[in-house]
Request: fold
Amino acid sequence: MRLTVDGKVVEIEADPEMPLLWALRDLAGILGPKFGCGVAACGACTVHVDGQPVRSCSIPVGEVSGAVTTIEGLSAGGKLHPVQQAWLEEQVAQCGYCQTGQIMSAAALIDEIPDPTDEDIDNAMAGNLCRCGTYPKIRAAIRKAAALKTAGI
Ligand code: FES
Ligand code: FES
Reply:
């Protein structure tokens, strides 16, 4: 089976029913996306398929036909993605476990809505849980990331 992940073609031998997250972590060695709940309820495993955020724990790898982007391929040209830059500047992460999923959801949000309202942010991020309670910093970082992206930084 052939997947495009983070701009590279990856050949894996997988049961088509295997969740994409298993294929990424166990077969392709891409450990950025995390396992949290396994039932599409926490967002830790979020990656993009053709730019859309998906819960990789709950999609069979055989159903993935688009290009997959993980946290490991989010930045380009040696430059941090605006969401990553904003996350650092706002010092969002605590334990960090949920953060790769949070960042992927946030990146998809500002791709779709360049200047999101608080309601847009709450709606887009509602499925990403953080046991450390970093939500206020996540909101602040998303507003900063949107501004950085609009400014072309
Ligand atoms: S591990 Fe996929 S949503 Fe929780
Ligand atoms: S930073 Fe610890 S779970 Fe979110």
Notes: The two ends are 37 Å apart (CA to CA). The CA atoms of residues 19 and 59 lie 5 Å apart. The longest strand covers residues 2-5.
